Structure formats: C-alpha cells, structure tokens
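Pilot study result, target chain (104 residues):
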Amino acid sequence: MTLLTAVFAAVICTVIWYKSASARELKVGTLCWMFWGASCMWLGDAIFEYMELGAEYFAPAGADMLNDFFLGLSVVALAMVIWLVILLIKDPKGVVKAQLFKKV
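Predicted structure:
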C-alpha cells in the first residue's frame, strides 16, 4: 500500500505540474521528485520483500495493509510539509515578503 500511495501521489502531482504553468512557478516539481523518489524506494522494497516471501507477498493481512496505507499517507503529508517550507523560503510570488514588510 505504501508503494501504491506514493505512485498515486506522484502521478497526480506530475499531471498538475505538467498542465499548469503556475504549478511550475510554485515549485511543484520538487514535490514530484519527492513522490517519485519515495515510489522508487518502495518499489525496491517490494522487490526484495517478494524475493523473501514469494507468493505470500500478494496476500497481506488487513491490518498490515492498513498500517502500510497510514505510513504512505504519513510520507505524503511529510513531503507536502517539506514542499510548503521550501515554498515559504523561496517565496516565488513575493507574498511572504510583502506580508512581512507591509506598512501599517
């Protein structure tokens, strides 16, 4: 489930990045790299786990699937927080700078 969660997030993020020029300006590409990196990591993990377990890999318990899904959601949330911090630091549209230095 972690692999599926990361791949779905990567595909959705990539489609948004590809279709929207403002998404490219807002550094959505960085988010895509994080999701695709996580997908590659979990693909490697799935390959090695399949080599260890064999056919049992495709019949996980319900609790294991739920735990993996929550882990995948946690990684997606963490990547989005990292992206948000990068976005606030880079401030491509100057919104944060304008708010910090506005005159009252």
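One observation from the pilot: The mean pLDDT is 91. A full batch analysis is planned for the follow-on phase.
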